[in-house]
Amino acid sequence: MAMKSNQKAAKPATETGKKKMARFEAMGNALVEMSASGNPEILFELGMLYSTGRTGKIDLIAAHKWFNIAAAKGNDTARARREEIAVQMSKSEIASAQRAAREWITLH
Question: Which distant-in-sequence residues (6+ apart) come within 8 Å of 78 by Cβ?
Answer without folding.
Answer: 40, 43, 44, 47, 66, 67, 68, 70, 71
